[in-house]
Amino acid sequence: MSVSIRVTDVRKSYGDVRAVDGVSFEVNSGEFFGILGPNGAGKTTTLEIVEGLRQSDTGGVELLGESPWPRNPKLLPRIGVQLQGTAFFERLTAREQLHTFGSLYGVGPKRADEMLELVGLTEKAGTRVEKLSGGQAQRLSIACALVHDPELVFLDEPTAALDPQARRNLWDLLRAINETGRTVVLTTHYMDEAELLCDRVAIMDHGKILKIDTPAALVRGLDAPTRISVDSGNLSAADVTRVADGVAEVADDGAILTFTTRDPSTVLTALAEARVLNGLQVRGATLEDVFLELTGREYRA
């Protein structure tokens, strides 16, 4: 399998702050690769160095077999970049925006109109960008990044601040982009998004990559208990340990009784024999649990 991105021991500091501190990873061609991390982890700085928008202090980056820095004109037609905040041209419609972006790459109006259809904005083609909803504007920014048919696409938190429906619609679009054979690199704060979309993820904090693997492998590697919930009232918190051996913690909020265990099969059998399975929910570890285990639970603004 060929490699689209190779990053080797990249470092970037601003004064005493080490924004990127010895980052190394590879992204295979056709892969959907995610970079996860809390605020200030170094995700965006890393991505900007890989894209050729920022120079690293030390280390090397190879992008589609080329060095992205100094700014490499050979790479510009081959990559598409959607930044956290896209600045559109003022007072232009969605179609005019795409035609303008396309013209910068020598792409004709027909291709731009096809991109409007791909991102589901054909009905909004004549709408000025300031009148688009947040989700529609994000779709347009992705269309602008794809209008020249790049091999490699960078998406920096594309679903930030979107409502759940807009996020899920955008997920369908991102999956479709990847299924055409494009390599996609995504940064996101949403663990469910990364778990659903990414082939592999890198979890970053304090400028370092802590772990890289598939979401499933990262979850399997976490020694976390299973959470089991049933309707409250059928069984009291005090009764749980009597009915089911192996229960570690019990919580009752008045509506749902939740407990954790490392022996879910034994506990579920005991609950079934006691006929207290109403409202049963079983939740194993998720990528969010892995993320919190590696980066901590402290809130960062």
From TrEMBL:
Question: Mind listing the UniProt keywords for this protein, alphabetically?
Answer: Antibiotic resistance, ATP-binding, Cell membrane, Membrane, Nucleotide-binding, Translocase, Transport
**Which segments constitute the ABC transporter domain?**
5-231
Annotated Gene Ontology cellular components are:
plasma membrane
Name where it mostly resides: membrane
* MF terms in GO: ATP binding; ATP hydrolysis activity
A GO BP entry? response to antibiotic
> Do you know which InterPro entries this protein is assigned to?
AAA+_ATPase, ABC_transporter-like_ATP-bd, ABC_transporter-like_CS, ABC_transporter_ATP-binding, P-loop_NTPase
Cell location: Cell membrane
Q: What's the family?
A: Belongs to the ABC transporter superfamily.
This chain belongs to the protein called ABC transporter ATP-binding protein
The organism's lineage? Bacteria, Bacillati, Actinomycetota, Actinomycetes, Micromonosporales
